[in-house]
Q: What sequence folds into this?
């Protein structure tokens, strides 16, 4: 989770998380897309929920815009997206830095 610096005083409880990132696997994908999604979007401070696939280049971004949630996905390592709440641009290549995929033929 990404939290504002004024929330860092309590090391045991996060009160104002802005972004949550889940790395999904074949086993966790259903829970991450359903149960955890509904849990996180119900938290007023969460503005971004990212799902990062560990098996391929796929970053799913859920972004709160007012009372609605917008969805986008990125499959190329050259893709990037804005995280305005944190004043940064995230690149898929940064998320997957030092990740190597092994494929069997």
A:
């Amino acid at each position: 989770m990404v939290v504002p610096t004024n929330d860092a005083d309590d090391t045991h409880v996060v009160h104002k998380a802005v972004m949550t990132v889940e790395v999904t696997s074949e086993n966790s994908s259903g829970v991450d897309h359903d149960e955890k999604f509904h849990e996180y979007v119900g938290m007023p401070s969460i503005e971004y929920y990212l799902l990062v696939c560990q098996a391929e280049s796929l970053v799913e971004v859920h972004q709160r815009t007012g009372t609605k949630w917008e969805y986008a996905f990125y499959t190329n390592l050259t893709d990037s997206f804005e995280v305005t709440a944190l004043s940064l641009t995230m690149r898929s290549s940064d998320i997957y830095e030092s990740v190597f995929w092994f494929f069997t033929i």
About this structure: The longest helix spans residues 35-41. The CA atoms of residues 1 and 20 lie 5 Å apart. The chain has a mean pLDDT of 85. Helices lie at 29-33, 35-41, 92-95.
